[in-house]
């Protein structure tokens, strides 16, 4: 059985290399058929927000890449509810990320799962490897 890899995203998307590096490592892991999950906590929730504009920071906007995660069979994306609330955000402020379920006639299903802090702690306990960015 494949090991479960959790990529824990804690940083804002721009101003450091952490968010982009995490995304690149996630895509590499998925290409090697790892069982990949992502969690977004703290300022990491900003990585998934809609309508990011990077004109003022001199970095490329890589946020559209998250929409491709479903194509790599990455469909376990956990967002901590409390982190959203603490930043005045809701699920509606995030990109709509989906995957196609081949067992359900290729129906599109939501990839983002809104979870509480305690639920996320339980999910993290189930992982074999957790990488924090």
Spans of 5+ residues with little confidence (pLDDT < 50)? none
CATH superfamily annotation: DsrEFH-like
Specify the number of helices.
3
Question: According to CATH, what is the class?
Answer: Alpha Beta
Radius of gyration: 14 Å
Distance between the termini: 25 Å
What is the count of structural domains? Answer: 1
Classify the secondary structure makeup into a structural class.
Answer: alpha/beta
Order of helix and strand elements from N to C terminus: EHEEHEEEHE
Q: Tell me what the CATH architecture is.
A: 3-Layer(aba) Sandwich
Strand arrangement, major sheet: 6-3-2-1-7
Outline type:
globular
The proportion of residues in beta strands is 15-25%
Quote the average pLDDT. Answer: 95
> Which percent range fits the helix content?
10-25%
Tell me the major beta sheet.
5 strands, parallel
- Total beta-strand segments: 7
CATH topology: Hypothetical Protein Ychn, Chain: A
